[in-house]
Amino acid sequence: MTTVDRSRLPTRTRRDDPGRTTRAAPRRAEARRTRRSSASQPGARRAGALTARRVDDTETGWRLVALLSFVGAGGLYLYLAVTSPTRGVLGAAALPLLVLAGLAVIQLLVRANAPTYDLAGIAGTGLGLRLVGGYARFLNPVDAFSYHTEGIRLAEAYRVFDFGADPERDIPGTGTIRVASGVLHVVTFDDFLLTLLLFTLGSFIGACLFVRALQIAFPEADQKRYAMLVFLLPTLFFWPSSLGKEAWMMLGLGLFALGAARLYAGTTARAVPEIVLGLAMTTLVRPHVSVLALAALGVGFLGAGTNRTRVRTAARIAGVALLLLGGAVLARSAADRLNLENLGTDELSSAQQRTAESTSTSGGSAFEPVIANGPLSFGVATVTVLFRPLPGEVRSVEGILASMESVFLVGLGAVSIRRYARLPGLLRRVHYLLLCVAFTLGFVWAFSAIGNFGILTRQRSQVLPFFLVLLALPPLVERQRHRRRARLGPDRRRGDDDAVLEASLGPRRRTAPPAT
Q1: Helix H or strand E segment including 492
Q2: Spatial contact of 356 and 451, defined as CB atoms under 8 Å apart
Q3: Is 433:218 a contact under the CB 8 Å cutoff?
Q4: pTM of the full predicted structure?
Q5: Does residue 470 sit within a domain?
Q6: 516 residues of the chain, pLDDT tens digit each
Q7: Is residue 99 domain-resident?
Q8: Residue at 254 is within a domain
Q9: d(C-alpha 438, C-alpha 263), whole Å
Q10: How many independent structural domains does the chain possess?
Q11: Within a domain: residue 142?
Q12: Which DSSP string do the residues of 3-63 spell out, in sequence order?
């Protein structure tokens, strides 16, 4: 028998094995399925349907704007501390700590979302704008000063453990904010500015919770546009940046939205406490808004979902329990707050009529409201609640800014009209989007009776985070392809269609070549 010297044979590598690709294909397919399954879980490090990636080091424009906003806010508060030491010293001294707390919240948000855009810069700019808005609200406090004076009175009682001190206003309602102000005045040494800034920080945290909720429940949405709207829209960084109900409601509704997003995603253990805490906060101030939120949560369950987003049985059971138990409690609380026997149609219509009469006859920004009690009037009421005042209707600075914001939102919706072609299908399969639409429509119906632009503009801050989801629908794949082809040169367009589809729909499965 002849012995073969194997050392002289040509080396055979794994790459030369014709069956290697065929044998490895099932393993690669299984690995892709595992990655996709893990990516579909809440909190997965991805943004939309795109593959997660770190923000490029060159995308620092928003961070520069954020830095400038911090410097501007610091200059304003320093000027206040110098010109009015009795009012602004403690707040100005605590400002760096509040900024650090806000930056810590931003860092948690960025880690959870793993965005493909400069979320840290946009959120930082939003924090700086809220600090500037808080300064403006401090100079013109209106209701905030009343909460401050009552907070001082209650804080004196709380310091001697007299927790039964009467806030002299109803709870739920204004009395809740007075009690919260009293508690904070204990730790802020009765400093008005510092208490106001703590409320402002709470409203900013609420905005972050809304951004996180959208990423969990609707990842294919235009996350960057939504973040820019929530953090940078004047109504949302001005009115909640004060010691008052708007900041409280922003935080409470943000908690509710995050819990609802987790519930639709199947994370029941974390969702239920967040929903309960959020609704508890809103009920203590405006229980009728809590009723709208809980009803919208139930409407969201009507969505069919997809294989990945379909609500699990445990989440549905938890949702039904919340609707039954919470609905009974909130309905009674809302009826008591509105001085109604019940929440029947006749009682609610009477309440709307009384609201219209009381708000349309006082103040320079009063107008005759159109109550949403029919299809035609509902359309008019939608425009009024979401977009008025329009340019020329008011002459105050706040009213002019609000009208400019309305024009911007209408224009943004007009240039994004092609996106709404997907709205029916998205409503069928995205539970959170259905919740946002239901809450917006319910809010329009409930607040259409308000006949004062000043009141309506402040109240609108509660519904805008939900309504803005409709302005952040995902763009069409064809639009993405057009923009990418316009950005690339003619010599770099080969394979562009495949790249766009892969970015929009996820990576394609690669089949192994047949063995030879």
Answers
A1: none
A2: yes
A3: yes
A4: 0.79
A5: yes
A6: 555 555 555 555 544 554 554 455 555 555 555 455 444 444 444 444 333 445 554 456 899 999 999 999 999 999 999 998 788 889 889 999 999 999 999 999 999 988 889 999 999 999 999 999 999 999 998 899 999 999 999 999 999 999 999 999 999 899 999 999 999 999 999 999 999 999 999 999 999 999 999 999 999 999 999 999 999 999 999 999 999 999 999 999 999 999 999 999 888 889 999 999 999 999 999 999 999 999 999 889 887 665 455 556 666 666 666 666 666 566 656 555 555 555 555 555 555 566 665 566 655 678 888 888 888 888 999 999 999 998 888 888 888 899 999 999 999 999 999 999 989 999 988 999 999 999 999 999 989 888 888 889 999 999 999 999 999 999 876 455 555 556 655 545 444 444 544 444 444 444 555 554
A7: no
A8: no
A9: 17
A10: 1
A11: no
A12: PP-GGGSPP--GGG-TTHHHHHHHHHHHHHHHHHHHHTSTT-S-BTTBPP-PPPTT--HHH
CA 237 – CA 130 distance, rounded (Å)? 5
- Total residues found in the chain within this entry: 516
Residue type, 377: S
Encoding tokens for residue 410? 């209408």
What is the token pair recorded at 398?
Answer: 């706040």
Q: Structural domain of residue 403, as residue ranges?
A: 352-493
